[in-house]
Structures are given as C-alpha cells and as structure tokens.
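Appendix B, example 12.
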Amino acid sequence: MRTVFHISTHILRNSTAGHASLSLRPCNAATSLRCSFGFSTAPARPFKRIAVSGLPEIVFERSEWPLSSLQHYFSEHILAFIGYGNQGRAQSLNARDNGVDCIIGVQENGEGWKQAVSDGWVAGKTLFSVKKAVEHGTVILNLLSDAAQVQQWPVIAPLLTGGKTLCFSHGFSVVFRDQTGITLPEGIDVILVAPQSPGLCLRESFQDGHGVNSSIAVWQDVSGSAKEMAVLLGFTIGSGSIYETTFEKQTFADLVGKCGVLGGAIQGLYSAQYKVLRANGHSPSEAFNETVEEATQSLLPLIGKFGMDYMMAACSTTARRGGLDWAPVFEQANHQIFEKLYESVKNGTEARRAIEFNSRSNQGDDFTKELEELSNQEMWRAGKVVRSLRPENI
C-alpha cells in the first residue's frame, strides 16, 4: 500500500531570527482520513498540518477533493440557499456552477427574487418562498442578514426536521441566541461555513479559479458526519482553503475585524492622517495619495502576497526606518482600544446595537444617509478624482 506524508510547518522564533522548518509524518492516504475524522469521502491526498507558535492545525484544501467527489457527495442532496443578498447570491451561483442541485428561498417578488430571476433561477423549479425552499431542501443554508434571520426564524424552525442540516455563514444568531431568540432543534446537524470575504469577492475569486479562505465549525453533530458536510460544502460554495474554528471564535473574530482593521479602524486611521496633512497645508490630492492611494494600490497588495517584512524591504531606507520605529507607538496606542472592542463584542453589546439598528423599519434609509455622509467626506471626494485619473481609467 502506498505511503505518503503529512506536512507540518513549524515557525521557530528566537531572539535573533525566525525560520520555518518542515517535518514529515508518514501516513496512509487511503485510511488516514477515515481514521482521523470518520469521513466517508476520501481526499485525493492527505490533509496539510500546520503549526505556528506550536499550535497545531489542519488545513483542508480544495485540491484534496476533485469536483466529481463533491458532485457525488451531494448527489442525493438539495442545497437550499435562504436569502439572495451578499452571501446568498455568490454561494448559490458557485454551487450551481459546480454542478450541485440548488434552490433559492427568498421573499416572493422582492428585490432578491427579481435578482435571482435575472440570474437564471426559475420560479417554481429552483426559486421558491423561504417556507417552500426549507421544506424542499436537505441542506439549509441560512444566509439571511442577522436581523432577517430573527424575523424569519418562526417560519424556518418548524420545518427543520430530522435528517436535514442547517448551515450558517456567520455564528452571530446562534452565539447571541439570548438576544436573537434562535433556539436550534435538537435532531439536526448544525454547522458553520464562513467565507473570509464579502460575497462579491467570493464569487470573483471562484470565477478566477482561486477560492477564498473559509472557516468551518460544528455546533451540533447528530449524524456523526457534520464536519465532513461542512468541509465539502465549503468547497462547493467556492472556498479554496478551509480552517477549523468554533461558532464563538468565528463570531467574535469577525465582529472585531469588521469593527477594527477591516472597517472602523482603517477608516479612522485614514481620516486622522488625512486631516493632519490637510491642516498642515497639503492639497486634497496629495493627502489622499499619501494616505489611501499608495496604501491600496502599492503597499497592501505586497503585504497580501508576501508579508509585512517584504513590504518594508521594498520601501526606501528612510521609509523602512520610520515604519519600524512608529509601529510600536501605534500598537501601544491602539491595544487598549482593541481590548475594549473585544470585550464589547464578547459581552453582547455590539450584537445588541446591531440588532436594534437593523430591526428598525427605517434602517435602510438611515444607513443610506450614513454612507452618503461618508462618501461626502473630503478625503473620499478627493479619492474619486484621483481614481478617475488612474491610467486605466483615462
């Protein structure tokens, strides 16, 4: 029988340098999956094992399962995507392109319904009301907004009968169930498949042949194969690599990220630097170029591809020195803010604020006003002009 190897990457740090070493552990490709996880669908090759700072993890990779394996696994399933917004549209289109039976459940004749029809979903065949889609589906992907999940739960919950799997792409409604009122039935599998990107990026990455990172978790495993379902479902909806987590950790990390460096913090830092430059006589275009344009067009792509050290090395010697000297200052100034943010997420304050705002009848109008105020900030008005003058836009 053929012998293969698990690859484990260990990042070793000491006072002078850091380097990576690979350790190989032999295992049997045909049996290791079933022995370790109890999966019924064997991968094409063993899972990758990584360890950073001594913390072992397993990464599931799309290349481990050919498309034919995914199609075979889901051949007796119907994936019911509930909601056709940010994630619903992207995930369902990716799954459909992967040759898996899918249906959509949305409010009849609403905006999501109209978008689904324009994307080729057929009313009465692949496009249904939420109630009928949950009835027909065997795997129910609840991709409604957090507020809409609360509103629709009385419709969905009674239809979650034995043998079905309920999947979320954000653990919010489950983790903060004391506020959302979502009590899960005991006789079904409940899993999490959370792409680490907005739906638009998930779709684009899938169409480009890549796939984004996703997180999976199991809340309830009645069948004994909930993790297998989560992994294969993750690849079906467009994931490239999949990492394990828990509902709580995914929810806390996601909310901290969105409030922090993925949203609130980055806007706050951009705005603060821009305003200081303007107050000291720099033009709007210069302030924008030195604050946002160089970051998004030159430096952040380098960090994304190669890491912070590579980006620093690619800069001038003066820029390197300034970046390295000021990084600890910014870290110290912001550390307490992030601790406060994490506690606000953990104790449910952020969840309560989100639910209250998004449950208001006029929340859409209020949100539009907030976006208009953001768009009308001088920094972003300067950005529109600068972007329009990029060579590819002239």
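The longest helix spans residues 317-346. The chain is about 50% helix and 20% strand.
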